[in-house]
Hints:
Oligomer: single chain
CATH class of the largest domain: Alpha Beta
Radius of gyration: 25 Å
Number of strands: 8
CATH superfamily of the largest domain: Spore Coat Polysaccharide Biosynthesis Protein SpsA, Chain A
Shape: elongated
Amino acid sequence: xxxxxxxxxxxxxxxxxxxxxxEIKKVLNKIKEYNHELIFVNNxxxxxxxxxxxxxxxxxxxxxxxFLSRNFGPEASGWAGLNYAxxxxxxxxxxxxxxxxxxxxxxxxxxxxxxxxxxxxxxxTKDNMIMKFVRKMFYKIFNGISNINIPSGAIGxxxxxxxxxxxxxxxxxxxxxxxGLMSWIGFKRKFLFYERKQRxxxxxxxxxxxxxxHAERGIFGFSYLPLDLMVYGGFFLTFLSFLFIIxxxxxxIAYENPINxxxxxxxxxxxxxxxxxxxxxxxxKYIQVIVEETKxxxxxxxxxxxxx
Length: 308
C-alpha cells in the first residue's frame, strides 16, 4: 500500500494543532487505498505546541513529531518535514487551516493521473490591499528577471511525488527559496485553484520583514539581473560623465567663464554616491549568498523526534 506523507510546520500553534489534526484526518479517512503519516514539525515554539504534538503522537501512531532545537525560520520547518517524509507522495500544509485540507483529495486525484507536482494556487485571500499589492509586484518582478515562473498564489501547499522529493533533497545549496526550487527542477505539474480562508485562531508570526527576506532569497538566488544592471548602469553613467566633462571644457574655452555649479555638483555627488552605495549593497547581498553556502551549516538542527 502506498503512503502519503502530510507535513505540517508549526510555530506557536497551540490553538490550531487539534483542529488541524481532526480536519486532516477527516479527509484522509476517505482515502482507504493509501496509508498515511502526519508529520508535525515544531519550529521552536514557546507555547504548548510541542506538548500537544506529543499527546497526539501517543494516541495516534501515524502522527510523528519533529522538534527543532530553536526557531530556524519558516523555510527550515518545511525542509525538515520533507527530509523526514517516508511516503510515496508528500503534501505540505500549514497548521492554521487557511488552506483547505479538502483539497488533498484533489491533489491525490491529479497524482493518480501522472502529475508529479500538484500545487494549490489561491485566487483570493483576506490579506490587506498593501500586502496583496506587494506580493503581486514581487512575483511579477521575480518572473520577469529569472528564468523560471511561479504563480503569485502558489505558496507551497501541494503534493510532490517521491522522485520530486529525491530531486529536491539532492540539491546541496543552503540559501534556499522553496518555491523557486520546485519550479527550477521541472517535472510534470498541475495547478489547482482555491480560495484561501482567514486564520481562525492565533496570530501569524510572519511579518513584513520576513516577506522582504523571502523576496531576497528568491531574487538573489535565481537571478543575476541586478549585477547586469550595475554593469549597464555603470557604462551609461560613465558615458554621461564623459559628455559632461567635454561640455564643461568647451564652455570654459569658449566663454572663459566657468559655470558657478556648486549646487549641481553637490546634487551630482549625492546622486553618484547613492548609485555607488546601491551597487555595493547588491554585491554584498550576492557575497552573503556565497558566505552562507561556504559555511555549510545545516538548515536546521533536530532536538528530538517521536514515533520515528
